């Protein structure tokens, strides 16, 4: 039988209310580490690696639907009947779709800097092509990888984020995510994961970065169509990586009911 094991971190009290965090494209569960630590005081916290990311399994399929079903299988395995679900970017798309399909299992939904609409797949192609062009066999250190990627990714913070995906074992380097499968799945990953009739009637908070272009004012219409009880929180100082760029603001929004 195919192994669909998702890597995850867990923290907090065993009997505390559960909350599950999902990362964005080319992210991993480590992106939630700081937030998870704070939330573990009152919650049982789970941070997952999606398929083809981090330490989770690799597969040729990288669609939202498969990721949603992975989450269902994982939750069944953990004995989680219902939980708060929070997802950033790609993880937010997975979370939205999961809530629409399995609403009885979602106590509350938190969607971070993404909207239920199509996004241009082309915007990610250059990222994947730049990473795949890196010759891992010639690397001597993470610093050398950073230097080689500087021309393709001049923004230091974004480059640092991407390099969290590079692993070194016995002086050999490898990409932890399945870059080829994710690149092949960009069309599906980039489109709106929801059909026109899908909705979730439970409490929802959309937490968006004021400096990010991922969620626009006109997206409010589609947000409320699919999530009629949605509340939208804007953190003016944050960009796309809301939970990292304004952690205090994000935690405040996350803790509101």
Structure write-up:
With 257 residues, this protein is α/β, with parallel strands linked by helices. It folds into 2 domains: 8-119 and 191-255, Rossmann fold, CATH 3.40.50.1820; 122-178. It has 11 helices and 9 strands. The protein has helices at 33-39, 64-78, 90-101, 122-132, 142-149, 156-163, 179-184, 186-190, 219-226, 242-245, 247-255; strands at 8-11, 18-22, 44-48, 83-88, 106-112, 166-169, 172-175, 204-209, 230-235. It has a 7-stranded mixed sheet with strand order 1-3-2-4-5-8-9, with helices on both faces. A two-stranded antiparallel ribbon has the order 6-7. Helix 2 packs across helix 3. The chain is globular. The N and C termini lie far apart (41 Å).
Key traits:
about 260 residues; alpha/beta; Rossmann fold; 2 domains; seven-stranded mixed sheet; two-stranded antiparallel ribbon; 11 helices; globular
Topology:
Blueprint: E1 8-11, E2 18-22, H1 33-39, E3 44-48, H2 64-78, E4 83-88, H3 90-101, E5 106-112, H4 122-132, H5 142-149, H6 156-163, E6 166-169, E7 172-175, H7 179-184, H8 186-190, E8 204-209, H9 219-226, E9 230-235, H10 242-245, H11 247-255
Parallel strand pairs: 2-3, 2-4, 4-5, 5-8, 8-9
Antiparallel strand pairs: 1-3, 6-7
Helix pairs in contact: 2-3
């Amino acid at each position: 039988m195919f192994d669909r094991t998702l890597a995850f971190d867990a923290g907090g009290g065993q009997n505390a209310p559960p909350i599950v965090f999902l990362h964005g494209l080319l992210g991993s569960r480590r992106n939630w580490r700081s937030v998870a630590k704070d939330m573990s005081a009152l919650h049982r916290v789970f941070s997952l690696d999606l398929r083809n990311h981090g330490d989770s399994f690799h597969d040729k399929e990288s669609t939202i639907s498969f990721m949603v079903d992975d989450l269902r299988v994982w939750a069944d395995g953990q004995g989680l009947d219902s939980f708060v679900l929070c997802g950033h970017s790609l993880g937010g798309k997975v979370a939205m779709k999961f809530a629409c399909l399995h609403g009885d299992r979602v106590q509350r939904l938190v969607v971070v800097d993404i909207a239920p609409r199509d996004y241009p797949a082309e915007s990610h192609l250059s990222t994947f092509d730049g990473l795949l062009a890196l010759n891992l066999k010639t690397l001597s250190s993470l610093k050398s990888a950073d230097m080689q990627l500087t021309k393709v990714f001049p923004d230091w913070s974004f480059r640092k984020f991407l390099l969290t995906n590079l692993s070194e074992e016995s002086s050999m380097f490898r990409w932890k995510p399945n870059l080829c499968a994710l690149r092949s799945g960009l069309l599906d990953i980039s489109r709106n994961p929801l059909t026109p009739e899908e909705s979730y009637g439970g409490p929802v908070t959309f937490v968006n970065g004021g400096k990010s272009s991922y969620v626009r004012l006109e997206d409010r219409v589609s947000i409320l169509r699919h999530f009629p009880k949605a509340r939208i929180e804007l953190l003016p100082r944050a960009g796309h990586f809301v939970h990292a760029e304004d952690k205090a603001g994000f935690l405040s929004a996350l803790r509101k009911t």
